[in-house]
Design a protein that fits this description.
alpha/beta, Aspartate Aminotransferase, domain 1, Aspartate Aminotransferase, domain 2, 2 domains, seven-stranded mixed beta sheet, 13 helices, globular, binds pyridoxal-5'-phosphate
Amino acid sequence: MKGLDDARRLDAADPLRRFAADFALPEGVIYLDGNSLGAPPRRALDRLAQTANEEWRNGLIRSWNAAGWIDLPKRAGAKIARLIGADEDSVVVCDSVSVNLFKLAAALIARNPGAALCVDAAEFPTDQHVLEGVARMTGAPLLRLDDDDIPDHAVLVRSLAHYKSAEILDMAAMESVARKKRCDIIWDLSHAAGLVAVDMKGAGARFAVGCGYKFLNGGPGAPAFISVAREEAEQIIQPISGWMGHAAPFDFSSDYAPADGVQRFNAGTPPILSLSALDAALDVFDGLDLNLLETKARALGEFFLDCVDDLPLTPLPTPTRRGGHVCLRSDDGYAIMQALIARGVIGDFRAPDLMRFGFAPLYISFENVRRAAETLREVLSTQEWRRAEFGKRGKVT
Ligand SMILES: Cc1ncc(COP(=O)(O)O)c(C=O)c1O
């Protein structure tokens, strides 16, 4: 089993080690949940204060122009474009993943009559629920898939990195089959953006959505992003045709005329406070070699699995290519995770029986991982997780 010395040696050689200082984490906490809610970058906290105290408090409504609020969805989108290998003008930050998925799936079904809506039966629930809604509304059939085959004549929603197994799919290979089968893939990049060096253009991917609050560290409820290749965006009208997606919102005309390209996917007024935090958080990635992120996350995950391999917990099978988290299975997983959290090691629990440990490569060290594994060992050997308080379920797990 790997020891503390191994961890320190790996940390000393880590090309990303300087980034931990950019994040504000509480003393004594080992935060293994950046795959669910990213830790706050210091610059995001500063920007929130500045946006609230200067731009809102002093600038008031003038800040829409003076502080450039009105273009923030586009500016933040351009920063995300670099992280997912899309054209700068093909990404916009708006709404949630759920809402963006609805807009995109409904728009693609509308332009492609007869196509089926398809989603993996093990896909993140919101992706399945939203497609159910689009199917009900449009009458398109909804197929739940249980294998990796690309369906014919379909709009398929797929996570690039899975929220439980963390498996990362081969985007280029799937797109190449999809093209031959008249299948539009909407990629859910929630667990990939900010972790995997996604290359949408290189892979021929045209549609994607993703979270702003996970590895992008935009803060709780940060707005999501949507990416639509330029040539595609011009051909589709999304159903939530709100004024912020209008070509000229301040003309106040009665009729809807969509804005150019992906900007038409805006709907209502952008949430400037959270958008400012996300915009600042994205600057952490400036100039960073994105390949280092996935490599380190994978190494952290392997190190963790090595540290816990003698414990009575079953890891989910390791996929060929794994993202930023690992899951351990136990019938008592919820209580064990609560006991860990009480000791300052924060992960999460995914029903029915998975303890999920996320390894955000920008601020987690190998020493953190080693200490977390030791804490898990102690929680199990002392059986402290059996205490009644750890069995009480909160609304959020
Ligand atoms: C893969 C995936 N998609 C979508 C979501 C939810 O997105 P939103 O809350 O922005 O609708 C999550 C949340 O954890 C997720 O893991």
